[in-house]
């Protein structure tokens, strides 16, 4: 133990004797470790955000749509555009022919819309969502005030609207919008409800910058010749897979899909969204590891260089210590400890820099971040490993010096 403490003291003294040179040597390790911490912070934060957002969805619910989940890779959208649209006849068939299905909710939406009052209007960024009255059953949305539209309003196509909080805050700052009037595509709509604030989806876009109107009114505004997205809720957890199988079988038969061909529609569940996310995070992780390894190798070469210089500068010191009885393993341990301590210090600086970058991303871009403890431990362990690997040769060279020749050195 005393030998270890002596080695640590000597290593620290060497570092403090040449702080600038040591810091410049460690730049590669600092950059590599900071890259790992930043990447893992972003990826882990994104995972947590996904789980939170998916947890807001209704229980035992999946979605049937014409389009694939995506954005995380190259998608041939023209190919999917050729698919048949999902229509109201398909919705009614699911309701009538799938005994394991409890609720079927067709929806359609249009982004980039304006919502206005007599004195104020939003930017053309609002998502207008057309839904039936039972939409809260499968979506998990809750109301802060007012109510959702009812069956009569949905069937009659009455011009009523439920606002998201971003829209309400802009058009009706500091007041309850229920009972007031807004205009969508020039038509007047009476506000009957205000949604509870939901935050952002995956930290990328706001779930509160939207309004909801009856599906029939939506189709009057934006047309009926559009493919619907259908939220389907099973009657219970034990019937979730059976409900998916029933819906898939029914739609394949209705759309004349041959038995040996894949379905020409998509079924999205929490697991499928998570799988799409994993494709993205895997690419980011591999890229981060590649940058980290390259930076650590550069840092390791720097440690090798500075340790060889240190051995040359301290040749006489090594000779004196060996003449006084220091064994080869003690000299070897001293210089190996210096290399590891140097790399560990670089790793600690990299961790600090990584945390700073993660905080900056969270503060400026409002992206979800969370640095897992295991990432910090892995980064520091990799730093120590690089220090030991590249410090062994200079340490062994110092241990082999002849004490007489070493003491004669200038």
Low-confidence residue ranges = none
Total helical elements: 15
Question: What is the overall silhouette?
Answer: elongated
Class inferred from helices and paired strands: alpha+beta
Largest sheet: 11 strands, mixed
Radius of gyration: 32 Å
Distance separating the two termini: 33 Å
Strand content: 15-25%
Could you tell me the mean pLDDT?
81
Number of strands: 13
SSE string, helices as H and strands as E: HHHEHHEEEHEHEHEEEEEHEHEHHHHH
Q: Report the helical percentage.
A: 55-70%
Describe, in plain words, how this protein is organized in 3D.
With 410 residues, the protein is an alpha+beta fold. 57% of the residues lie in helices and 16% in strands. The protein has 15 helices and 13 strands. It has helices at residues 2-17, 19-25, 27-55, 77-81, 88-97, 135-139, 151-156, 165-171, 215-222, 240-254, 270-313, 315-323, 328-365, 373-399, 403-408, and strands at residues 61-65, 101-113, 115-116, 126-131, 143-146, 160-163, 181-184, 187-195, 200-201, 205-206, 210-214, 229-234, 266-268. The strands form two sheets. Strands 1, 2, 3, 4, 5, 6, 7, 8, 11, 12 and 13 form an eleven-stranded mixed β-sheet that branches. A two-stranded antiparallel ribbon has the order 9-10. A hairpin with a 2-residue loop joins strand 7 (181-184) and strand 8. The longest helix is centred in the C-terminal third of the chain and has 44 residues, at 270-313. The protein is elongated and about 100 Å long. The mean pLDDT is 81.
